[in-house]
Amino acid sequence: MVAIRAIILDIGGVLEHTPDLGTVARWTPEFGAGWEHRVDPVFRAGEIGTITLEEVHERAAATLGVPVARFEAYMDDVWVEYVGTYNAELAAYWSARRAEGYQTAIISNSFVGAREREEEAHRFSELTDLIVYSHEVGVMKPDPAIYELCLDRLGMRPQETVFVDDFEPNCEAARALGMAAVLFKDTAQAVRDLDALLQKD
Q1: What pLDDT shows up at residue 1?
Q2: Most C-beta atoms within 10 A of its C-beta, which of 29, 53, 57, 172?
Q3: How far is CA 113 from the centre of its chain?
Q4: What per-residue confidence (pLDDT) applies to 200?
């Protein structure tokens, strides 16, 4: 059996607690019913980095017929929900494994501006050897290309890694490549599952 040498985590819902704070609903009276679906193509572009954050603001505002400043105010609320609160318990566990010699990495379906916001809020760069953001590499989970890019940058074979995500299709995609995967439900469960995998080494 190949020993696991790297622990790869998702961010939203895993390293960050990100409950729905009702942001979309709060802005619906101003933007109109179903407004979020009208700007979905703009947000999709932001998730793979084909437009800048400024262009997101401008295009979404134009689509909705509102001043750019109003959409920027909405985005200020979005970032509060996006960065959530820090999962300090999981981060401490992950850091301890890194100190033991495991490599650590992040694969995140992200959004233009996320690196700066999350670094300011949580300083993930101090926890991990590598961060792969979808908006920086132009591909999103569960596309196998984003996992393969991470593995290549780590210099790891799939069998040497375990991936933790809170969305089962993303875990399935990792397993299809030969990675171990843990579906995150809560921190205690994820730590138990990781320990069980690491103890097989």
Answers
A1: 72
A2: 57
A3: 13
A4: 62
Question: For the chain, how big is the Rg over CA atoms in Å?
Answer: 18
- Structure tokens that stand for 186 in this block: 């809560």
pLDDT in tens, 50-101: 999 999 999 999 999 999 999 999 999 999 999 999 999 999 999 999 999 9
pLDDT (tens digit, 9 = 90+) per residue, 135-181? 999 999 999 999 999 999 999 999 999 999 999 999 999 999 999 99
Q: Please state, in angstroms and rounded to a whole number, the distance separating the CA atoms of residues 76 and 71.
A: 9
CA gap 93, 57 in Å, rounded: 37
| Structure token digits, residue 102 | 């495991």
For every residue of the chain, which 3-state class applies, written as one string? CCCCCEEEECCECCCEECCCCCHHHHHHHHHCCCHHHHCHHHHHHHHCCCCCHHHHHHHHHHHHCCCHHHHHHHHHHHHHHHHCEECHHHHHHHHHHHHCCCEEEEEECCCCCHHHHHHHHHCHHHCCCEEEEHHHHCCCCCCHHHHHHHHHHHCCCHHHEEEEECCHHHHHHHHHCCCEEEECCCHHHHHHHHHHHHCCC
Q: Is the pLDDT of residue 201 over 90?
A: no
The residue among 39, 30, 120 whose CA lies nearest residue 73 is 30
Max intra-chain CA distance, the chain: 59
Using an 8 Å Cβ cutoff, are 111 and 136 in contact? Answer: no
Total number of residues shown for the chain: 201
